[in-house]
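2024-03-11 09:14:02 INFO worker-7 job=invfold-0412 stage=load source=structure_tokens
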């Protein structure tokens, strides 16, 4: 491959949406980003390492990933993600379940992009502080559903592979 064929991916082309109506049949996807200066997904790989007595070196296997994203968000009244997360501050158990939609907007064509939808929980970890922010963690649960997203007027519609 030649360097002229390379195109740098911008952070704005990696989109994460959260479902602000997770108990409804149809998700309400809201773009995560207002008041957030950094977000990434930590894969937290679960590794098993074993050294047999007949070998000098150990062998490791990657058993699973425990995906998690930590967010520090300045509070902006009217932002649907902030309003949703703020409403979860004192919730526990099933009340903090949601869905996450991760979209590689750099990898598609036209208005269709590769995406993964995951079940998740959202745990608020800190509120207020010196900068009026809310901190929370998104914990991805189970295997993601792979598919594509079509974005129309800023709203994604997810279609699972094979549908």
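2024-03-11 09:14:09 INFO worker-7 stage=emit residues=163
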């Amino acid at each position: 491959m030649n360097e002229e064929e390379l195109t740098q991916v911008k952070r704005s082309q990696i989109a994460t949406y959260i479902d602000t109506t997770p108990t409804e049949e149809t998700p309400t996807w809201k773009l995560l980003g207002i008041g957030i200066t950094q977000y990434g997904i930590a894969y937290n790989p679960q590794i098993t390492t074993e050294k047999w007595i007949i070998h000098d070196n150990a062998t490791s296997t990657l058993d699973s990933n425990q995906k998690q994203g930590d967010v520090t968000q300045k509070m902006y009244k009217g932002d649907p993600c902030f309003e949703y997360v703020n409403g979860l501050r004192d919730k526990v158990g099933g009340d903090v379940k949601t869905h996450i939609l991760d979209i590689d907007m750099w990898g598609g064509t036209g208005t269709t992009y590769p995406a993964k939808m995951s079940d998740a929980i959202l745990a608020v970890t800190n509120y207020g502080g010196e900068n009026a922010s809310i901190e929370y963690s998104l914990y991805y649960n189970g295997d993601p559903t792979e598919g594509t997203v079509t974005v129309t007027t800023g709203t994604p519609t997810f279609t699972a592979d094979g549908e």
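2024-03-11 09:14:09 INFO worker-7 stage=report msg="DSSP finds one helix and nine strands in the chain."
2024-03-11 09:14:10 INFO worker-7 job finished
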